[in-house]
Each structure stands twice: as C-alpha cells, then as structure tokens.
Records
---
Amino acid sequence: MKNLFILFLLSLSFTSTIISQNEETIDQIIKRSLIDSKGFSWLKELCEIGPRLSGSQNSIKAIKWAESKMKNLGFDSVWLQPVYVPHWERGKLEKAFISSSKKFINKTLTITAFGGSISTPKNGITGRIIEVHSLEEVSKLSDAKGKIIFYNRPFDNSLVSTMEAYGKAVDQRVNGAIEAAKVGAAAVLVRSIQSNFDNNPHTGVMKYAENVTKIPSAAISVIDADFLSDAIKEEPNLEVTIKLDCKTFDDALSYNVIGEIKGTEFPNDILVVGGHFDSLDKGCGAYDDGASCMQSIEAVELFKRLNLKPKRTLRTVLFINEENGLRGAIEYGKYSATSKENHIAAIEADRGAASPRGFYVTTDSLTFQKLQSWLPIMNKSKIDWIRKGSSGADVGQIKNAKALFGYVPDDQRYMDYHHSNNDVLSVVHPREMELGSASMAILLYLISENGL
Ligand SMILES: [Zn+2]
C-alpha cells in the first residue's frame, strides 16, 4: 500500500514536471495551428486537384503536389516510395431504372458502382429484385437465377460508434456479390452504408472470389432503397435494369509521399504520422482522408514554424492505396522492417477531421501508463482520453514500433461524407481540423522530447 502511494506521488510529480516544462510550447502549437489555419489552406489546394483514386492520373498529380508542398515548407528531406497499385475506373455510364412495372415504370434509381466491380453488358442487366438483409439469407435462396439481389440491411443507428455501425453493415458491400453469384444472381444492389438520409449513394471497395462468377455490384441511395423496398411490396415481380461501364486495368505505378525533419539528438529514432493519400473517386476526398493527410504534414511542419528542434526524427508518410489494396502501407511496412532505423511510434489519422476526442494505442503497459500521465497537458487541444485500441490499417503495417496510435476525432458525421459526393471541402471545419493537427503535433513533441 505504501509503495503504491509512493508510486502515485511520483507519477503526480512527473505529470506536473511534464506540464511545467512543456506548457508554453504546447500553447504555442495550439495557437499557431488555430491562427494560421495552414493545414486547411493546403486542403483547399488539394481539393482543387479532385479525387485521388489509386492508379488515376489525378492521384499522381496530387502526389507531385504533396512532394513539392513538403519541399517548399522546408522539410529536411522529401522522397517518393514507389509501389504498384490497382487501377479501376468507373466509366461514364451508371444507370438504374424500373423497367417492368404497372405503377413505377421508368422510375430512375440513383446508384453508384462499387470500386472493383465489373461492368454490365452494353444493354445492361435486367432482372427481378429479391430483397434480403444478410449474406446468410442469400445463401438459403433457392430461386435466384438471373435475379438482382438487393441487400437492404440499414446502418445500425442504435450504436453510439458510427465506426462500429459501419463495420456491422459493410459485409453486404464487400462480400455481397460473391454470395449472390453463388446462388446464380445476375447483379447486386446494396443499400448505401451511411448514417444520414440523402440521395448520394456511397461507394467503397468490393471483392470477388476465385472460381465464383463475377457479377456487377453497386450501391443504391438510401432514399431509393426505401422506395424500392416499398415498391416491391406492392409489385413483387417488378424488374430493374442496371447499366454500368466500369473497367479494371493493369496495376499502375504509384507512390507513398514521405517527408521528414531530422532529429537533433536521436536522428535514427523515427516518429511517423500519416494518413492515406488515395481517396475514392467521389467528391474530392476531403474528409477521407485528405484532411488527415494535411494534418499529418502540419503536425511536423509546426516544428519548423515554431523553430522547435525535435530530438527525434519526425516523418510524415502519405500512404497510397488504403481504400482498395493497402499496397502503400505494406510497402512502407517492409521498409520499416528492414531499414536500420528505429521506429519508435506511429500515428494514423483516418477518421475524419472533426473535433479531437482521443487516441487509441497499442503498446506495452508501462508505456501506456506513461502516456496516461501526459493526458492533462494533451487535454489542452481537447484530447480527453488515451485508450488501448487499434491504430489503423496503414501504420498497423509498421510491426516493430513501440507504440502505434490512432487519432480519434468525433465520428458522428464521418459516415455521412466518406466515399460519396458529400466528401468535399465544405464539410471540413477549419478550427476542428486545426485542433487535430495540434493534437498530433503535441503527441509528437512529447514523444520526441521524452522518449517512450
Ligand atoms: Zn479512409
């Protein structure tokens, strides 16, 4: 008991030392982020390039832009890490309508192909609609030949975490076409996975399996999903025609964009911060994950702006191809495993740009305790908690780091925007985004100064 008390007093004095030693710098980091709003102004430039689907010309334009941006900002070194990525294009034709019905004939349905889907034949695919709510339900269908399977299980709004609700609905999109093809269906429509109610269907990646026929697969907007569901209650035999024009090309050469500021005392100790630079081909990928990429640049650049000399090397990594392959992260993971550098920590930002909440971390229990003692000072930028949890798909590939962090802003609106035409600059709030840049810069600063 006595020992525990001494430990408690020690941790209190450690916490107050951390606060008194770093308070001024941390206040400066927050002030400069909010006043200058540079990360947001870079996001504006990035959004002018447009969406950045892996393998697209736009993605290469954005990569070159980020490379020269980091060079112009005075990073000590900036380089591109080559990697081959999938290359799929949506095409121009994306249409669905009710083609056989007494009451609803020619009613248009708003759809959008899932990334990786095959096209339909030129005249489209026409079939009767079968509404289902799970993959299991599909596997039990006895008469699905030539039909269109309509997955209509909604986003579970009973869950507080939108990430969790998304995770529970996304199997319909990812594996829906495989299960439908196994029972002979001709195509798939999936209720758009989102928490709001509009007519902008959300795309996302889908899968095919070896030895299972590939069939086209598309999202249908939530408004039209409700309409279709009601319509087939009235007319169970109504038919829908779908026309898609997508195409998969050979893998294309692409790059992770990497920039760093060298550490003054321990240059071989690396602290990574990053997001994924590819987006889906909707909106401009502002929220998913352009803003986080700009925050990752800014979290490091703030050290230059404030003339802070980090003891350890700070490295921004913009990973390519998270959405449909993770090839960039895998490539960086291979590099980190074989390089002579010492990856101490990595922070991933891929949960949108709303107001900061906390950090998830995977690390040992001693380091976890140390991080908890930093919370009072991290709270200055609205970081309320550090919890054990997954960092994210990209930095998760850095297997040898002592601590992997996932930056967590408020997630209530994330699913309304991502993967859709809603994902544009105007949904990013400059102050909330800048507080995120500051939160990550503060964490980098504390690790760089104190180690882990
Ligand atoms: Zn993302």
---
Amino acid sequence: MTSDAAPARPDATDEVVDLCRDLLRIDTTNTGDNDTSAGERRAAEYVAEKLAEVGVDAEIHESAPGRANLVARIPGTEPGRDALLVHGHLDVVPADPDEWSVHPFSGEIRDGYLWGRGAIDMKDFDAMVLAVVRDWQRTGVRPRRDVVLAFTADEEAGSDYGAHFLTQHHRDLFDGCTEAIGEVGGFSYSVDEQRRLYLIETAEKGIDWLRLRARGRPGHGSMVHDDNAVTALAEAVARIGRHRFPVVMTDTVRAFLAEVSDVLGIEIDPDDPETAIAKLGPIANIIGATVRNTANPTRLAAGYKDNVIPGRATATIDCRSLPGQSEELERQLRELVGPDIAIEYVQRQPALETTFDGDLVARMSEALRAEDPGAHPVPYMLSGGTDAKAFSQLGIRCFGFAPLRLPADLNFSGLFHGIDERVPLDGLQFGVRVLDRFLRTC
Ligand SMILES: [Zn+2]
C-alpha cells in the first residue's frame, strides 16, 4: 500500500448500505400532524442503539410524544477547538406505494440502487454518519475537534418539533459549535467523463409563506353583486402567480456561475444568467430558482354552498426570498395584491448565505478530490430550506455537505420528494469515504 492510498475501510463502506436500508424500513412519514407522524421515535431509538453498540451515549429529546430528536457528542483530541455540528433529519415526506416501482418502505436493492422514501432525503447521509462514527469507535479513531451529531424530527414540516425545538430548548447541547454540515449539498453533476461539479450548499433561500385574505359582502349567488371576495382573491392570486420578479444576483450565485463558466467553457451574460442556467440540464431547476424571488400560489379556500357568495376567501402563497430580499419581496407582493387584500405570514424564516472559503471548505474540497480526482467543488444556493435555518440561529455557519457521487444520467433533483427515490450503492460508499476523510481532518 502506498502512503497516499485511501485507508482500507471495508467495514464502514459495507455497513452503510445495511444502516441505510434499516432506516428506510422504518416509516418516518411526516404528515405535518403529530397524531400520524409515528416513526421518528423508532428511528431515533435505532440510531441510539447503533451508537450505544460502539460506546457512544446519545440523548433523545421529544418535543411532543413520538417526535424524537437525538443528539450525541464525539469528543475531539484538541479540546480548545470549536466543535462541528453534523446534522441529518430522520423524517421523510409521504409516499404513495401505488405510484412506486417498489414499496417505498421496503428498502429494496435493485439495479445497483437502494430504493425507498428517504434514500436521498436524507437517510443516506444519516447512515453515512453512523457508519463513519461506528467505524471510528471500533478502530480507535478520534476527530480533532468535538463532533456533535444531531438526528432530527420534523424537518419536512418546518422543523418546529425538530431542529427549532432543539435550538430553543436544548441550546447547551450545541455549546462550542461554530460550523455545521447537513443536507443538501456535496452531490455531483457530471460535466463529462472526466469532470464533475460538486455542489456545496453555502446559501439557502428564505421561507416566506403567506396567507391572503379577501373580504367582500356575502350575498345570494343569483343577484347582481359587485363586492365578491372570491373574485377579488382570484385576481390577486392570478397577478402573483403570473408575476416574474426581477433577477437579483447574489454572491453565491455569482460564484457558482463563474465556476460553471470556467469548467464548462461557456460565456455567461450577467444580465441574462437564465439562458446559461437552462443549459445545465438536471440541475437547472435547482439553480434557476436562485436568481430571483419566487411566489407560487398553493392553496385556495372559500365558500360553503354553490349559490351563496361568501364574505371571505383565502389563499396561501409559497414565497421564497433571496438573501436580504425578504422585505423587498413583501413590498412587491403588497403592491401586486393591492390595498384591499390582507397579507399575513404563516412562516417566515430568513435566507442564509456564507462565503465559500476557510479551512472547512478546504477540507471538504480536499476530501472530494482525494476520492474523485475529477471533482470541482462549487458553492451554490438551495432554493428550499433545511434544518440549517434553525442551527444558524445559534450563530453556526452552515453548509450543505452530504457527499454523493452520482451517475451522469440520474435526475437527482427529480428524486427529492419524488417517486422511486433511490440512491446508488456506490454513491453511498463514496460518500462514506469522503465523509470519513473530511471528518478526520477538519
Ligand atoms: Zn431533507
């Protein structure tokens, strides 16, 4: 064995598949309702058991019956250093077995993939973390700095019973943590046979979900009526739905596009980044949403009888704001809906953005390049939100880094919350090797 060869880690790379499979077989569907979100406790107990087997004590904290969150700390060898938080959620979005090629909770292995709801979002990463830590414990490896592990509930419904609960009620568990890794980043996008971009999340858009309320005069559906809440609401919803907000280039997107332009050898017009983004194929819909604020109507409610004009009507709009744009987005929306429609926020969580530099980024990049010589790590902004929103409230600098090497033809973004969610077995094992290198050195 030469000195620069990867350390032989057959245990962790073998075990990750079994760990991920076990987790996929625990149905942790998050319905958004505490009475029917049952599996998180079982999953947290499974993780606790796997950690206890190798001598790691974990604490489980329930925010409500069954809504379980697990936290454990692996002490580092250099106690003066800041700690690193490694977090993954255990819940998944619902899956309808009738739509799937395999049962979504069967953990089937087929065609080189492990299939199941949560395979990429994000029991794959949960399993990688467990595999690495178990391997370390068995072989006496210790990280340089404290590594705090958090396995959370409720990420898929806004994290109130998960990461937000932990940061609000168990802040002390994260003492000393200044940086964090979690979803959604570290996955590959193939440029050609030799080169792959690895998208590391350094920013995420804000969540600005709002409810519109229209009021009008109730009345009989058969009569002349010029103050109809449904009509007023429908007009406002249509104006929002058709509106395209202006392009706003953030530092992260600028850095991403500069790197892409370099690696792909294409010119990108800063005034029209979307033409270039459209050429990115499977990741175009992730990146495309990060050059402007967006607002998509998602729910409508009004009326109770076919011939009665209701006095009120409501709609929900899923808005996502770029870093620093939440106030501006609100101003634009108020202008679009006009003075007669009331706006209230159902959820408002700020966007995040950090820089793509420093030791932690260097260690991520090195670990990727060591396992894939064709790796080009690039920063990017996620259009959705993650548990990073909660952890960043503690002043923690959050990155999306759950490394996965993916086949060139896989529509990765389409698998998130999608039908036939699956993770390539070799990608999972690649992730373990990268994570192991990264966590040892960071
Ligand atoms: Zn997720």
